[in-house]
Amino acid sequence: MTSPLYAVIDLGSNSFHMLITRLVAGSVQVVDKVKRKVRLASGLNSENLLDDAAIERGLECLCFFAERLQDIPQENVRIVATATLRLASNRGAFLNKAHDILGQRINLLSGIQEAEIIYLGVAHTSCCASKRFVIDIGGASTELIIGDNYSIKHITSINMGCVTFNNLFFSNGEVTTSAFTKAIQSAKKLIEPLLESYQKTAWEIALSGSGTLQALAEMQHFNHQTTGITLKYLNEIKQNLINCKNIEKINLLGLAKERTPVITSGLAILIAIFEVFAIKEIQLSSGALREGLLYEMLPKSKDISIRQRTINSLTEKFHVDMAHTKRIKKQINTIFKYFEKARVLNKSQHLTLLEASCDLHEVGLLLEYKQHQQHSAYILKHTELPGFVQKERQLITVLVLLYKGDIDINALRSQSETTYQEACYLLTILRLAVILCQRRKDETLPIYKIDVRDDVINLYLPRKWLAQHPLIKDGLRQENDYLSIINLSLNINYH
Questions:
Q1: Apex CA 189: angle with CA 185 and CA 191, to 5°?
Q2: In 343-437, where does DSSP find H-type helix?
Q3: Does residue 22 register a pLDDT over 60?
Q4: Does the residue 368 lie in any domain?
Q5: Residue 10 to residues 87, 138, 211, 386, Cα–Cα distance (Å)
Q6: pTM to 2 decimals?
Q7: Is residue 363 one of the residues assigned to a domain?
Q8: Is the dihedral of CA 297, 353, 284, 68 positive or negative?
């Protein structure tokens, strides 16, 4: 029986979004996404009246959405309106007509309600660190939330967004240093009163799923740059935009045309946030407002960890031999302790990602054996992985691609989750664990020891056991040749 559909509609200040999903193997599968650039906020005048043209654009979009909603149970639908409709003094006229078109209740969110749901969307889809600083730059408002797991510590919604700031500072289309400076300073004045209270709560990672961050991350990806947005990168993009001189002439590699009208204003707000809060790096999250609405609607969404839900779904879909991955994970944990003892690896996060790589390293086997590593890497690269941020997914994909056979140094260098040297050690652990479990059989492996000294790995195994397992012995011998490409030596010793 096909699982029921769920729909979430977000009437945003810049775009209207409709997300349609269903549950497959315990995980969310996106069935359809519809997005229209309505730019509702651009229709607000100085008296906060929404003009007829903006209203008409919005209602036309909702007619498209209404057709799709006919097939979805009302109890599985959530529709929310955000900043522009909060501000609009004539919002009643729009919302009444919108209700008639959709035939569903529309919930007008307060700024704080919107921020809470945005944070939940990130919490449901990201678990790289439980203490998060979540930033969301919308069309007419910006939300700043610090939380721990699903608990919110500080929360604010500010009336500034990429559409409203575009109207204030870039309305003539000119992109100048002066316009950027004014926009950044204006944003700072609105943000700085929060600094003292926000500094009292520690956070480990900054995340955002807003359109501005998505656009910046897409440009990074297009240009084969490492992931993670830094202030240096933001200032480089700012200078590139200034060089374009006019919004209509913006043509940056990897920047979608639909994003060009508001990239300058969104960037100015983001630079102000970076400078006020002294943020070193921000990661793109895979969830925000729509995901917050969706996951709070789904049954038992908090009962299982996000990462485990994602892994369970993929391993079920691709019929992964979980008994085999369990064997390998046991060896990974044993080997990791030796590398930890040698002080070349010391982060629990490394072990978590290694275990995830182990669970997923054979997802491509369902397609064919010959190129299953490439298939596995392709699947992971092009699949949504709630619970893993972009950098983590990069590392997992590389480990899965290289878990046996030739080692591509460039692939190892392309990930930015950890250093190149640490990535080499992590890959070595996975490869050794796979070789030791080559028989795919629940047998007791002998007690072995590993001594790690910089670029030399000494593996001590019983002579008798190696004689009884010539294929594994040969695999370990060949592994020394493979590891030499990353300047590591594997010595097999007897004890």
A1: 110
A2: 348-360, 372-381, 390-401, 409-414, 420-436
A3: yes
A4: yes
A5: 16, 12, 14, 20
A6: 0.77
A7: yes
A8: negative
Residue 457 lies in a domain: no
In angstroms, the CA 237 to CA 240 distance is 5
Residue 356, both tokens = 């995830």
Report which of 372, 331, 349 is spatially closest to residue 459, judged by C-alpha positions: 331
Q: Which of 375, 264, 260 is nearest to 318 (CA)?
A: 375
Question: Does 124 share its domain with 214?
Answer: yes
Domain extent, residue 102, equals 5-109
Taking phi first (over 0 means left), then psi (-120 to 50 degrees means alpha), and beta for anything else, what does residue 42 get? alpha
pLDDT, tens digit, for every residue of 288-332? 899 899 988 887 666 667 788 889 889 998 999 999 999 999 999
Instruction: Determine the distance from the C-alpha atom of residue 67 to the mean position of all C-alpha atoms in its chain, rounded to a whole number.
Output: 31
CATH code for position 177:
3.30.420.150
Do 260 and 158 share a structural domain? yes
Based on the fold, state whether residues 146 and 42 are members of the same structural domain.
Answer: no
Residues 278 and 132 in one domain: yes
Closest to 408 measured CA to CA, from 427, 393, 422 = 427
Number of folded domains in the chain? 3
